[in-house]
Amino acid sequence: xxxxASPVFSQMEEKEWSLIFIVNGSNSLVDEAIKDLKSxxxxxxxxxxxxxVHFAKSVKSKGFMNWTGLKxxxxxxxxxxxxxxxxxxxxxxxxxxxxxxxxxxxxLKIKFPARKYMTIFWDHANILNRPPVSPQPPFAxxxxxxxxxxxxxxxxxxxxxxxxxxxxxxxTRVLPKVPDNSRFTPILSFLDNTTFVVSDLKTLNNNTSDIxxxxxxxLANLEMAKILKGRTEYMIASxxxxxxxxxxxxxxxxxxxxxxxxQSPSEFANLIMSQFxxxxxxxxxxxxxxxxxxxxxxxxxEFSIAIIQAINKKSIxxxxxxxxxxxxxxxxxxxxxxxTIDFIDFLKKFKRGTSDRALKNKAxxxxxxxRNNEIVKINHPPHYSKNLNGISIYYPxxxxxxxxxxxxxxxxxxSWNELLIKIETFN
Length: 427
What we know:
Blueprint: E1 15-25, H1 30-41, E2 49-57, E3 69-74, H2 100-111, E4 114-122, H3 142-159, H4 168-174, H5 185-194, H6 198-201, E5 209-215, H7 222-228, E6 232-237, H8 250-259, H9 265-279, E7 285-288, H10 294-313, H11 318-325, E8 340-342, H12 343-353, H13 357-372, E9 376-379, E10 392-394, H14 405-408, H15 414-426
Parallel strand pairs: 1-2, 1-4, 4-5, 5-6
Antiparallel strand pairs: 2-3, 6-7, 7-9, 8-10
């Protein structure tokens, strides 16, 4: 479990806001992460705003933050994130369960109480589904290999291990199948907890945050909104690939919050949206209200059942559906990720592309629900040309003929999952 203990920080008096940044720098984005942490520290906490940073770092830096490990900081103005000032200890060996992120947030909320909370998850686009590990090295994906190597070196540094204990190639060979009593089991626990994954989200308590921001790619999707229902009032994320350390001006956002700490979560969420629009000429950001997602999920289930029945009756073919899907842009193509499409765009194209009147009407009804239930708001920057509407759904093009198991676990409804499997099997 996460253990946080410091005689300096006994429970503080309640403030207006507590912001909790959970930042994964144990990957190729460590330099960008440090840039954002410097931006956060240029403002620091105030008498009405707590700023907390939990940072995983796998390599030492020259000068600034010259340490490795998992550390949590109460950020003061011009903070240098000195390891001696951390309010917790290195806890890699203590992280045993998928509930570690939830326990960390819960502990910080107790120690730094506030009337309003915001949690920021900062990580890679593969925050949701990590690339599969090849059973035999070298890995086909050099980027993933390099990131895994960073994690491996980080783990060794934490435990003071040397090459006589294990080497990287041996590590990669045994990683896919590791028995519970293996000497490698702690490494898997470490890997599962330093990179934020969707299973962590499922452990979050209800009302964890008023605002939950993903500073990561491709996460403004229906699957994530379903998981966060009841856990946050507002979810902010992008459907697209965004640039690390260049998407949000944290110094400006924190300055504006500290200047007006009485602003509501709704006001601050809209301020984040507005600032992102100014700073990103070619990317859009989504503001999603998970609490309003239930009618969409219910109707999507009915829609999926109707499509399956129509396929069985041969009033529509899987090929027809595939043609409609392929008219929608895959949102992660910059990362060779063709797993998600804009859901509203798909519904519009489905409505126009099918001659089945019952299916056409169901697509129309889903579109009306999106318009009438204030589920998603998207800020299109000036001169924005992409046909995005603010919320995506998992629907790969199946060019690789495989369903991503991590997404299958969280598809928004049972019948949508069955439909995807039916389409994938056909292909």
